[in-house]
Amino acid sequence: MEIKYTNHFLNKLEDLFSETAYILRYERGNFKSGYCILNDNKVAVINKFYSLDGKINCIIDILRQIEVDENKLSPKNQKLFREINQTVEN
Fold first, then answer.
1. Residues 18-34: pLDDT tens digits?
2. Does the pLDDT value for residue 89 go beyond 60?
3. pLDDT in tens, 28-60
4. Which residues contact 78 (CB under 8 A, 6 or more apart)?
5. Which one in 31, 58, 85, 89 has a CA-CA gap of 20 to 30 Å to 3?
6. What is d(CA 86, CA 1) in angstroms, rounded to the nearest whole number?
7. 75-89 and 52-65 helices cross at what angle (nearest 10)?
8. What is the domain partition of the chain in residue ranges?
């Protein structure tokens, strides 16, 4: 799968993220990696001033790090999640 750096793809990733146990927020911050994961609170925070491609890359990185129950995802988001994991592994 080719990662597309468009607002539409960002919206698809945000939709996928909304079906996980985590909450995605865009906030101001000095995160060295561009994001911060608060595992105890199940919150992921991305620097709101990041560029579009930076936000997309952060969400993909976060999805790789958190535990996602694929059974709770809709069929289209299951497919997207698998494609993202295959892209990252290659």
1. 999 999 999 987 777 78
2. no
3. 877 777 899 998 999 999 999 899 999 999 999
4. 70
5. 31
6. 8
7. 90
8. 7-89
